[in-house]
Write a structure and sequence with these properties.
Chain lengths: 372, 636
C-alpha cells in the first residue's frame, strides 16, 4: 500500500482505514435518517436535547464502525458464549433482579446496573445463526427445533419480567433467522395456528391488567383520554394536522405546547409527521424500505450461512421496529414501548441498532474471507 | 456432493425468501402509507381543526372524597382545604438559604424540613414538594405580598382530610396519605390508575383503606383553552369528576367517646356490636394516634416516636391483640356442658379449692384458695369457679371443646371489614401435633377449660361470641358500614346483615346461661360493683388474662405494672332483647370486675340513658356483701 506523503495524506489514509468496511449505500441511508432525526428531536425539545442526541449518535456511529472491523469468523466464536452469558444474566435477574416500575429487568452488579434483555436482542439471533451455521451440512427439522429452543428460553425469561415488547421483538428476530434458513412452510402454518390458539389463552391467564388496558385502549382511545389513550389521541391529531406538506420545521404545535409528551422518544414520529407532512412520511418510508432492501441484498451476498442469516434477521428486525413504532403512533397498533429506530432520542436503542448495522457491514465486506 | 447441493439450495431458498420478505415489507409500508394518507389527506381538515382547537389542555379534576358519618350523622372524616407552600427543589440553587428567607415570612419548623426531605425522596424530578401545609390567614397574606422574592415557590390550594375526633377513631377510621410508588403500582395492576390522575391521597389504614375504592371516586377532567404559551384562557367543557361515596357507619361517635374516656389512663380495647345485625357500634384501641398527622406526611421523628413507643399506639388491639380469654370463656363452656349432655343445671360439685387429674397428682388451683363450697352451674358462672370448669373440661376433652367453641368464632377471623385482623387460636390435638410435634396432654385441656394455656382470642372475637349468646346463636359478620349513598343515582343503600352461620341451641340452656350472666352483675356476682344501680338489665362475665405465670402457691408473679394481668369483661344488654354486646380488655388492668366491667357500665349507660353516670361503677354494692363481691375476679 502506497502512503501519500504529508499530513493530508495521513488523514486521508486514516479516514479510508476507518471507513474501509462501511458499505457506502447503507452508511448514506443511515446518515440521512440521523439527519432527519436530529431535525425532529431538536424541534420536539426546542433544542434542549440536541447535545445529548449528537453525543448518542457519535458514540453509536463509532461503535458501529469499530464492529464493522471485526470479521464474521471472529464474531461467530463469540456467538454461543455471549448467549450463555446472557441466559445466566437473565437467570440472575429472575432470582435477584431489581424491580423498577413493577418489572424485574435490571441486574445490579455492584458497580453498575445492566439490563440483560438488551444484550439478548443481538445475542439470540447470533447464537441461532451460529448454531445453524455449524450444522449446515445436514440441516434437519431437529436442528430447527433446537434453534427454536435457543429462542424460546430467553424469550420466556424476558416475558416473565414482565417485558412484553422486548420479548416479542426478540421472538421476531429469532423467527426471521429460522425463516431465512428455510423453515418449512407447513411448520410456519402450524405455528400460526398455534399462535391463534395461544393468544386468547394468554389474554385470559397471563396478561396483566395494565397490558390488557393498553390493548383495549387501542380500540377506543377515548375511553381513557387522560391516561393510556391520551398519547394515541394526541399523536393522531399531530399526524393528521400535518397534511400533505406539513406545518414546516419547528412549526408543529402539538409537541411544542406539551400536548404530546415523549415527543422526542417513542412518539417522535408524530412530531416528524406534523412538521413534514405526508411527503416527509413518504421520504421516511422510502429510506427505511431502501435500507431493508440494501440489507437483504448484502445478506444474500454474504458468503457464510452465519453471516447471511444474522444479517437477514438484523435487517428484518430493524424493519419490524420501524413498522411497530409507526403503526403504534398512527393508531394502528397498541402502544408498546418501542422507539423509532435511528430517529427516536435515546442512547441504548441507537447503539443497539447501529451495532447491528456494524455486523451487517462487517459481513458484507468480509465475504471473501469465509469459506463456503 | 450433497453438502454442496444443500448449501446451494439454502442460498437459493434465502434469495427466494428475502424476496418474499421485501414484498411483505413493501406491502406493510403500503398499509402504513394508506393510513398516513387517510389521516393527512382525507381527514386532514378534521385533524387540522382539532389541532387548532387543541390549544385545549385537559386538566384533571380531583373528585371530593366521600364523607364518613356515624349512625347519627356526626361527621367522622371529611374534606377540607387550605393553602400550602410548595417548592420545586430543582429550581432552587440554595435550599438552606431559601428556608432562612422563607422563615421570615411564614413559620417553618424543623419538623417541616424533615417532612420536606422525606417527601422529596419520594417525588419525581421537577415535582413540587410541599414545605408548609395549612398556612394561617396571616401567613397567606404575608407570603402573597412578598411572593416576588421567592421564584420557584408556589402557594397553592390543597385538599386534605380532617378527622375531627383525632385519636378516638384512629384504629377504626384510619387515615389517608400521599400516594406512594407502591400504591401506584398496585392501582395500575388493578387497572384503577386512571381514576387517580392528579390525585394526591389514598387510604392507608382502617376504613379509609378498606373502602378506598368507594371513597375515592373517579377523576374528571376539564377542557381548558390555552394560549400559545400554555396559559389557561377559558373552560370549554368538562367531564365531571365522580364524587366518592359518602358512607354512614354503624358506629356511634358518642359511644366511642364515652368508651375512650372510660379507659382513663389504661391501655386496652373495646368492641361493641349490635346483636341484631352484627353492626359495629364501637371499636376502640387505646392508646390511639392522631390520624391528622398522617395526612400531610408524618415527619420521621414523630413516626418513630409512635412506632417505638412501649404503649404501641399503632397496633389495633381490638383486631390484632390476642389474649387468653380467661374466665370469659366459662359461659360458653357451661353451654357446651349442657348442649353435649355432660352436665345438668342441677349437677353440683364440692369445690375444695383445687382439681387433680389423679389422686395426689398436680393440683390445678381455684382462684379462691379454699374453694367455693358446693357449686352448681349457675353459681359456677356467678362466682367464676375454676374447679367446676377444670373438671368439666377434663370430661369434655379438648376435641369436643374445640369443636363446640369454634362455632362461636373462636380461632377464626370475624371477617370485619378492616385489614389485619388476627384469627386467635382455639387449639386441639391436631394443631399441637402440627405446631410443636408433640402429643396433647390432659393437663392442657384442664387449663383450656378456664380460657388459659393455648387459647387466644382478640377483643373482636370475644365480642362476636358474646353477641351469639345475646342473639341466641346467630353469627353475623361484624359490619362497619351501615349505609352508603351512590352518587350516580343519589340513592341510599343499606347494608344487609350477613349471617355466617346459625347455631341450633336449646333455648332452655341459653336461658340458664343468660340468667347466670345476669347474676354476675348483681349482688353476689363478680361484677356486682359495676352492675349496681343500673337502670336496665345487663348480663356479663368477668375474666383475667394472665401476663406472667403463677407460682405453685397460686400467687401471680407481678413486678412492674406492665406485668399485671389483663382485665376482661364481656357483656350484653338488656338481657331480654339485647341491643348491644361488647367485650372490654384492659391491659395490665388486673381484675375484670374492678377495671374492665366499670368501663362497660359507662358505655352501656350512654347507650341506654344517653349520658354517662360517672361514679356509678365505683359505687359500693348495696345490700349484703356475700363472699365474692369484694375482690372481683382474681387470677384464675
Amino acid at each position: 500500500m502506497q502512503i501519500e506523503p504529508g499530513l493530508a495524506g495521513i488523514v486521508r489514509e486514516g479516514v479510508r482505514t476507518v471507513f474501509r468496511h462501511a458499505d457506502p449505500v447503507l452508511l448514506g441511508l443511515i446518515l440521512a435518517l440521523l439527519a432527519l432525526s436530529t431535525l425532529t428531536v431538536a424541534s420536539a425539545t426546542s433544542g434542549t436535547y440536541l447535545v445529548g442526541h449528537l453525543i448518542n449518535m457519535s458514540v453509536a456511529l463509532v461503535a458501529m464502525l469499530m464492529l464493522s472491523h471485526v470479521p464474521p469468523q471472529v464474531l461467530i466464536r463469540f456467538a454461543i458464549p455471549l448467549y450463555v452469558l446472557g441466559v445466566f444474566l437473565l437467570l440472575g435477574v429472575a432470582v435477584a433482579g431489581d424491580v423498577v416500575n413493577g418489572s424485574r429487568r435490571w441486574l445490579n452488579l455492584g458497580v453498575t446496573r445492566i439490563q440483560p434483555s438488551e444484550l439478548m436482542r443481538l445475542a439470540v439471533p447470533m447464537a441461532m445463526a451460529a448454531y445453524l451455521h455449524y450444522r449446515q451440512e445436514h440441516l434437519s427439522s431437529r436442528h430447527f427445533a433446537l434453534a427454536g429452543l435457543l429462542l424460546v428460553l430467553p424469550v420466556g425469561f424476558i416475558l416473565r419480567q414482565p417485558d412484553l415488547g422486548t420479548s416479542l421483538l426478540i421472538l421476531a428476530s429469532g423467527f426471521f433467522v429460522l425463516f431465512l434458513a428455510g423453515l418449512a412452510w407447513r411448520v410456519m402454518a402450524g405455528l400460526v395456528l398455534l399462535l391463534g390458539a395461544i393468544v386468547p389463552l394468554a389474554w385470559m391467564f397471563f396478561l396483566h391488567d395494565y397490558q390488557k388496558q393498553r390493548v383495549l385502549t387501542l380500540f377506543d382511545p377515548t375511553s381513557d383520554p387522560l391516561g393510556a389513550g391520551y398519547h394515541i389521541i394526541q399523536s393522531t391529531i399531530a399526524i393528521g394536522s400535518g397534511g400533505l406538506f406539513g406545518k414546516g420545521w419547528g412549526q408543529g404545535t402539538q409537541a411544542r405546547l406539551d400536548f404530546l409528551p415523549e415527543g422526542h422518544t417513542d412518539f417522535v414520529f408524530a412530531v416528524y409527521s406534523e412538521e413534514f407532512g405526508l411527503l416527509g412520511n413518504l421520504l421516511l418510508l422510502g429510506i427505511y424500505a431502501a435500507m431493508v432492501t440494501r440489507g437483504l441484498t448484502l445478506s444474500y451476498n454474504a458468503s457464510g450461512l452465519f453471516g447471511r442469516l444474522l444479517c437477514g434477521a438484523i435487517t428484518l428486525t430493524f424493519f419490524t421496529y420501524a413498522l411497530i413504532n409507526m403503526g403504534m403512533v398512527s393508531g394502528l397498533l397498541p402502544v408498546v414501548g418501542v422507539p423509532l429506530p435511528l430517529v427516536s432520542y435515546g442512547g441504548t436503542s441507537m447503539v443497539t441498532v447501529l451495532l447491528g448495522f456494524g455486523i451487517l457491514m462487517s459481513v458484507a465486506s468480509n465475504k471473501s474471507l469465509v469459506k463456503t | 456432493m450433497s453438502e454442496f447441493i444443500n448449501t446451494a439450495w439454502r442460498r437459493e431458498e434465502f434469495r427466494r425468501r428475502s424476496q418474499i420478505a421485501v414484498w411483505v415489507v413493501l406491502g406493510l409500508f403500503g398499509v402504513l402509507f394508506l393510513r398516513f394518507a387517510w389521516l393527512q389527506l382525507i381527514q386532514h381538515d378534521r385533524y387540522s381543526a382539532l389541532s387548532e382547537n387543541n390549544r385545549v389542555a385537559l386538566v384533571p379534576n380531583i373528585p371530593p372524597r366521600g364523607v364518613l358519618y356515624d349512625r347519627n350523622g356526626v361527621v367522622l372524616a371529611s374534606g377540607d382545604w387550605g393553602y400550602a407552600l410548595e417548592v420545586v427543589p430543582e429550581k432552587i440553587p440554595d435550599l438552606p438559604a431559601l428556608w432562612a428567607q422563607l422563615g421570615e415570612v411564614v413559620r417553618i419548623e424543623e419538623a417541616d424540613l424533615r417532612r420536606f426531605r422525606r417527601l422529596r425522596e419520594d417525588s419525581r424530578p421537577f415535582e413540587a414538594v410541599p414545605i408548609r401545609q395549612r398556612l394561617t390567614e396571616t401567613e397567606v397574606a404575608r407570603f402573597a405580598a412578598q411572593r416576588y422574592r421567592f421564584p420557584g415557590v408556589e402557594m397553592r390550594t390543597r385538599d386534605w382530610r380532617s378527622y375531627p375526633f383525632g385519636p378516638t377513631f384512629s384504629h377504626l377510621i384510619g387515615y389517608i396519605g400521599r400516594i406512594s410508588q407502591k400504591d401506584k403500582l398496585a392501582l395500575q395492576e388493578a387497572g384503577r390508575w386512571s381514576a387517580y390522575r392528579g390525585a394526591q391521597y389514598i387510604g392507608k389504614a382502617g376504613v379509609e383503606k378498606r373502602y378506598e375504592e368507594w371513597l375515592h371516586g373517579q377523576t374528571g377532567f376539564e377542557h381548558m383553552e390555552v394560549d400559545s404559551g400554555g396559559r389557561a384562557l377559558r373552560s370549554l367543557g368538562r367531564t365531571p369528576a365522580q364524587a366518592g361515596m359518602n358512607l354512614s357507619l354503624h358506629v356511634d361517635a358518642g359511644l366511642q367517646q364515652v368508651a375512650e374516656a372510660a379507659f382513663g389512663p389504661y391501655r386496652g380495647a373495646l368492641v361493641a356490636l349490635d346483636p341484631n345485625s352484627g353492626g359495629l357500634l364501637a371499636l376502640l384501641s387505646k392508646p390511639g394516634y392522631d390520624p391528622n398527622l398522617f395526612v400531610d406526611g408524618i415527619d420521621v421523628d414523630t413516626w418513630r416516636g409512635l412506632n417505638e413507643s412501649l404503649d404501641k399506639p399503632l397496633i389495633n388491639r381490638a383486631l390484632r391483640g390476642v389474649y387468653p380469654p380467661g374466665s370469659t370463656i366459662k359461659p360458653f363452656m357451661a353451654l357446651a356442658g349442657l348442649e353435649l349432655g355432660l352436665r345438668k343445671p342441677s349437677d353440683s360439685i364440692a369445690d375444695p379449692g383445687y382439681f387433680s387429674l389423679s389422686a395426689g397428682g398436680h393440683r390445678y388451683r381455684d382462684w379462691k384458695k379454699d374453694g367455693h363450697g358446693t357449686v352448681d352451674m349457675h353459681k359456677s358462672i356467678v362466682v367464676s369457679c375454676d374447679t367446676y370448669y377444670y373438671r368439666l373440661a377434663d370430661e369434655m376433652g379438648i376435641e369436643r371443646m374445640h369443636d363446640f367453641l369454634s362455632q362461636f368464632g373462636l380461632g377464626e377471623r370475624s371477617g370485619v371489614d378492616l385489614d389485619g385482623e388476627l384469627a386467635g387460636l382455639m387449639p386441639n390435638a391436631e394443631w399441637k401435633a402440627k405446631r410443636f410435634k408433640q402429643p396433647w396432654w390432659p393437663g392442657e385441656t384442664v387449663i383450656a377449660g378456664i380460657g388459659q394455656g393455648y387459647v387466644l382470642a382478640t377483643p373482636m372475637q370475644l365480642a362476636v361470641a358474646t353477641m351469639m349468646i345475646a342473639n341466641e346463636g346467630v353469627l353475623y359478620r361484624p359490619q362497619i358500614v351501615r349505609a352508603w349513598r351512590d352518587p350516580k343515582d343519589g340513592r341510599t343503600h343499606t347494608a344487609a346483615p350477613e349471617v355466617v352461620r346459625t347455631l341450633k341451641l336449646n333455648p332452655e340452656h341459653l336461658r340458664l346461661v343468660k340468667a347466670a350472666m345476669q347474676a354476675v352483675t348483681q349482688p353476689g356476682g363478680t361484677a356486682a360493683g359495676a352492675g349496681a344501680g343500673a337502670a336496665y338489665t345487663f348480663a356479663g362475665k368477668t375474666g383475667t388474662a394472665q401476663v406472667v405465670g403463677m407460682d405453685t402457691a397460686g400467687r401471680s408473679v407481678s413486678g412492674s405494672t406492665r406485668h399485671r394481668d389483663h382485665a376482661l369483661f364481656i357483656a350484653f344488654a338488656p338481657v331480654d332483647k339485647p341491643t348491644i354486646a361488647l367485650a372490654v380488655m384492659v391491659e395490665n388492668g388486673g381484675h375484670g370486675g374492678s377495671t374492665a366491667a366499670p368501663i362497660a357500665r359507662k358505655v352501656l349507660d350512654y347507650w341506654f340513658l344517653g349520658q354517662t353516670t360517672p361514679g356509678a361503677a365505683v359505687m359500693p354494692a348495696p345490700g349484703p356483701a356475700p363472699e365474692v363481691t369484694t375482690g372481683g375476679d382474681h387470677a384464675d
